[in-house]
Amino acid sequence: MRERRPAQERRRAREFESFVAGAAGRLLHTATLLTGEPASRPAPAAEELLTHALACTYAGWDGLRGEDPYERTRQEMAARFAHTARRYRRPRGGLLDRLSPQERLVLVLRLYEGVAEEQTAAQLGLPAERVQALCLRAVAELRSRRTEPAAGPATVPGPEPAAP
Prior knowledge:
globular; 0% strand; 164 residues; Butyryl-CoA Dehydrogenase, subunit A, domain 3; single chain; mainly alpha; 63% helix
């Protein structure tokens, strides 16, 4: 009996390590989009969010019983983000940082992760119509930002060169 427990723990650890090796990159990108941090720099808030979600997934690893560990981790990450959204209100320079945390969460789940509207609504405890409205508003905001001219110094034409 004593030998059995360590063998189960090693098997569990190997399975989890294999899952993390395959899914960590995409999960970290999802976390980076959620936190609004730029992908080009280290993203400590995204790493913290992902670490917490992975810890919760590992804690319930034996209870997954056929459930997708990626889905579970993403749900944990979304729930943690929703509960700590006030941390992510100030702009951090990322692609989605101008959106509200709730808009960011809905947009990432719906468009990046491909979660159905009804599933997103159920996970967030919102009506499906609200999820749809948040997603549409977030997309409209991103499109309007894209069409705005870059905020830089205006170029004022100088005097015409004198003719020779």
